[in-house]
Design brief:
The protein is an alpha/beta fold. It has 17 helices and 20 strands. It folds into 3 domains: 174 residues, 3-Layer(bba) Sandwich (FAD/NAD(P)-binding domain), CATH 3.50.50; 146 residues, Alpha-Beta Complex (Polyamine Oxidase, Chain A, domain 2), CATH 3.90.660; 93 residues, Orthogonal Bundle (protoporphyrinogen ix oxidase, domain 3). A hairpin with a 2-residue loop joins strand 7 and strand 8. Bound molecules: flavin-adenine dinucleotide.
Length: 477
């Protein structure tokens, strides 16, 4: 027999305690209204989803994200509220070292620094004179003409080629797409995968002129934090989900839960699950927020009709990615490792997507006299490289960075379906999500396959959704 409905009767069930679900819960908690209670239900034994860290032998290995870019005051506020940022010297918040602003691109087998200023661009060997001249033409390029086909989606690659020319695509923009999405620029939709870039073109026509207008403060974004900051946390990225979870009422956290049914009822939803102790649970909720990734959403015990309608969402491609953290003695690497890391041009035919210089980015990632490298492999273009063996990786590291020794530390995480791709048919997925939410009152579908894949995007989406739910709840009382 399932346990009776809890008399406190939470109004919202949040399925998935990754960063999106945690931020929905945090936002609901901040409204501090007794009526707005919630349960956060996850099948895993730990919170955080993709955000996990391992500390071993003096090395700190990230399984998923290594850093976040804070450029929004709402994120800075949340970090203070959960105690990760404070005036004390041992606060968890860990800004990246100054040299982390330098990023390398691998071209013709060599690491070349990405130009960070217009002057550096003029002398950079990354682009030919013709390529540089083409960049300067960008302010004169018009918006995309969709003659006869208003629905046509433009790929990120076509967008960059049209506005900046093919060299910028090959030498900087495409490697950047590997770094963010592990994706293929030819199949990602610029409108959905890079909405801010797309919006600049819509508003200003020219990206360069639009960026200058933003720099000059001509646009008023009340949430913008200046300067933006790349950060992690002293004990690793997992400090972020852990601190949010610690700040929530512990009775609302249900880890290790096996959900057996999710069904609509007259007033909302009924969820049945088996808890960590093997006890059957059943509860009614007004709202249900599902934040599992698309491939996990397909395996949830949803009503048959909803499951059928959601099929296009289940089909969102998410290529595999492996994150391999290797530790070496400092003297075993010839490269100065004076930067964030290196991204690799596709024409290099490398078995790696890129390498983060983890111990150069942040303090405390390797023991004294040692360094840590995080190799990213796989992705949309070469998914088979997610299975590289170490010999292949070490040969490539030797070729690109002069790595000679044997690693003294190794930690590997393979994500079989790592990052959802906002591809050219993404509008169909969005339409499906909107249709399902309209057809099933109280249903909310969130997570990194909607409104951005970065940790910060997931956090902002979670905070916004929590606010929306609490506003809605208060109007019902
Ligand atoms: C290798 C890698 C590197 C990355 N690097 C960066 C980076 O440097 N910076 C950055 O900003 N972003 C990065 N990202 C992206 C970012 O980490 C993710 O997009 C984000 O963490 C996703 O959060 P989420 O809450 O939406 O989903 P998830 O983290 O996937 O959480 C979903 C949760 O749902 C739970 N769940 C699944 N099935 C069920 C079920 N049946 N019942 C109950 N619960 C269930 C899971 O256990 C999980 O806790 C990276 C991602 C990867 C994979």
């Amino acid at each position: 027999m399932p346990a009776n409905n809890d008399p406190t009767n939470a109004t919202t069930a949040i399925i998935g305690a990754g960063i999106t679900g945690l931020c929905v819960a945090h936002s609901l908690q901040q409204q501090s209204s007794e009526q707005i209670s919630f349960d956060l239900i996850d099948s895993a034994q730990k919170v955080g989803g993709a955000i996990q860290s391992t500390l071993s032998n003096g090395y700190l290995a990230e399984h998923g994200p290594n850093s976040i870019l804070i450029k929004d005051k709402r994120i800075a506020t949340l970090l203070r509220q959960i105690g990760l940022d404070g005036d004390n010297a041992d606060a968890e918040l860990l800004p990246a070292r100054p040299e982390a602003t330098r990023r390398y691109i691998v071209q013709n087998g060599f690491t070349v620094a990405m130009p960070g200023t217009p002057t550096a661009l003029i002398s950079s060997p990354l682009f030919s004179l013709k390529g540089k001249m083409r960049l300067l033409l960008e302010p004169f390029i018009g918006r995309l003409q969709k003659r006869g086909n208003p629905q046509r989606e433009e790929s990120f690659a076509d967008f960059v080629r049209r506005r900046f020319g093919p060299e910028l695509l090959a030498s900087a923009a495409a490697p950047f797409v590997s770094g963010i999405y592990a994706g293929n620029p030819e199949t990602l939709s610029v409108r959905h995968a890079f909405p801010r870039l797309w919006a600049i073109e819509q508003k200003h026509r020219s990206i360069l002129l639009g960026l200058i207008a933003q720099q000059l403060g001509a646009e008023n974004n009340p949430h913008q934090l200046k300067p933006s900051q790349i950060v992690s946390f002293r004990s690793g990225m997992h400090a972020l989900p852990n601190a949010i979870a610690d700040s929530l009422p512990q009775k609302s956290l249900h880890l290790g839960a096996k959900i057996s049914s999710i069904e609509p009822n007259d007033n909302g939803w009924t969820i049945k699950w088996t808890d960590q102790q093997g006890k059957d649970q059943q509860k009614d909720y007004r709202n249900i927020v599902i934040t599992t990734p698309p491939h996990k959403l397909s395996r949830l015990a949803l009503p048959a009709k909803l499951h059928q309608t959601l099929q296009p969402v289940f089909d969102i491609a998410s290529p595999p990615v492996t994150s391999l953290v290797l530790g070496f003695k400092r003297e075993e690497i010839a490269h100065p490792l004076d930067g964030f890391g290196m991204l690799i041009k596709q024409s290099e035919n490398s078995p790696l997507l890129g390498v983060l210089f983890s111990s150069s980015m942040f303090d405390g990632r390797a023991p004294d006299g040692h360094v840590a490298l995080t190799c990213m492999m796989g992705g949309s273009i070469n998914p088979q490289y997610a299975d590289n063996d170490d010999q292949v990786v070490l040969q490539e590291l030797d070729k690109l960075l002069g790595v000679t020794g044997k690693p003294s530390f190794r930690h590997q995480t393979t994500w079989p379906q790592a990052i959802p791709q906002y591809s050219l048919n993404y509008q169909e997925k969005l339409n499906t999500l909107n249709t399902c939410e309209q057809s099933y009152p109280g249903l909310h579908l969130a997570g990194n396959y909607r409104n951005g894949i970065s940790v910060v995007d997931c956090m902002l989406n979670g905070l916004d959704l929590g606010k929306k739910l609490s506003r809605h709840s208060s109007t019902l009382h």
